[in-house]
Amino acid sequence: MSGVVHESKPESLASDLCLEHGCPLTLICVNCGPGSYICELCAISAQHKSHETIALRQEIEQIMEQFNSKFNVFEQRYTMLEESKICEYRN
Ligand SMILES: [Zn+2]
Ligand SMILES: [Zn+2]
Fold first, then answer.
1. 6 pLDDT exceeds 80?
2. What's the rounded Cα separation, in Å, for the pair 44 and 38?
3. How far does residue 11's CA lie from ligand 1's centre (Å)?
4. How far apart are CA 58 and CA 56, in angstroms?
5. Which ligand is in closest contact with the Cα of 45?
6. Pairwise CA distance, residues 77 & 42, whole Å
7. Relative to the alpha carbon of 48, which ligand is closest?
8. How many whole angstroms from 51 Cα to the centroid of ligand 2?
């Protein structure tokens, strides 16, 4: 059997809606943990009012920045590898 099963569970971040308010989950509650996505109404609700929140967009931008810098390094290495391969092939 050569069937590779791709378990592509949709990693839903900002696309999820708040079960309580029906608003998009655009914030992360720092006090409630890294996986606690909340909506803007949650943030001002009694439960999270005193909690610190991070905007998801900001979080994504930070991740993307990290990813981009890593990707640049990877790209450089890959280019070097490809060049060395071509050299080997010619010899
Ligand atoms: Zn909510
Ligand atoms: Zn909270």
1. no
2. 10
3. 19
4. 5
5. 1
6. 45
7. 2
8. 5
Cβ neighbours for 24, distance < 8 A, ≥ 6 positions apart: 14, 15, 16, 17, 18, 39
- Give residue 18 CA to ligand 2 midpoint distance, Å: 14
- Ligand 1 centroid to Cα of residue 44, in Å, is 9
pLDDT band per the 50, 70, 90 thresholds, residue 13: very low
pLDDT for the residue 4: 62
Q: Tell me: the pLDDT tens digits for 34-79?
A: 789 999 999 999 999 999 999 988 888 888 899 888 888 888 888 8
Nearest alpha carbon to residue 18 among 9, 10, 27: 27
